Amino acid sequence: MEREHEVRRENRIARFLRTSHLPVEKTLASFDRDRLPKKVNHLLSTLLDGGFTDRCENVLAFGNPGSGKTHLLCAIGQEMIQQHGKRILFTPCNLMVQNLLIAKRDLKLSRILKSLSRYDAIIIDDIGYVQQSREEMEVLFTLLADRYERTSIMITSNLPFSKWEQIFKDPMTTAAAIDRLVHHSVILELNLPSYRLEKSKETKAK
Questions:
Q1: Start-to-end C-alpha separation, the chain
Q2: Is the dihedral of CA 58, 64, 65, 67 positive or negative?
Q3: What is the pLDDT of residue 133?
Q4: What 3-state class would DSSP assign to 9?
Q5: What sign results for the dihedral spanned by CA atoms 106, 23, 19, 47?
Q6: How is residue 33 annotated by DSSP?
Q7: pLDDT, position 170
Q8: Using an 8 Å Cβ cutoff, are 76 and 23 in contact?
Q9: Residue 2 CB coordination number (10 Å)
């Protein structure tokens, strides 16, 4: 019975990893934690216990391009699946927005929101990297509002909150979006040099 239970657990984890669309190479083992500020490293240790998804808390990672935001959140996502059996979904922001727009056009937006609600956390990568149109902003806000205090959202962004009006176009909508995200959240500030640039310089120096 114990062996059957373990096999079922392994199969469930494998299925969750497959459906998460997480980049398989972006793991905690391949992430250089020594680069992180002390405060962020401490927050990471706290997040890895998995409790933030039970509390429906959001995780917001800000920083320069190449600072490791995506890798860090993906690593947390993989740990949530493998260690805690959570359901996680990874998606670039532009892809999520386009899928929501298609669902809205086909009068299936409520259906896709319901299907997304089964995930304990959704990782939305590079919010604000491509400026949204007003229609795109509206479906993105709908997603954030739908998940508010129900499940977790994990976001990476190069833009600080002070520039989020570029995303949501309207001051009131911007304020409402930020309020929903920040209300129950852990904020990771990765003001670090580009990891890719550092590695490139190291390679050229050899």
A1: 55
A2: negative
A3: 82
A4: helix
A5: negative
A6: G
A7: 86
A8: no
A9: 6
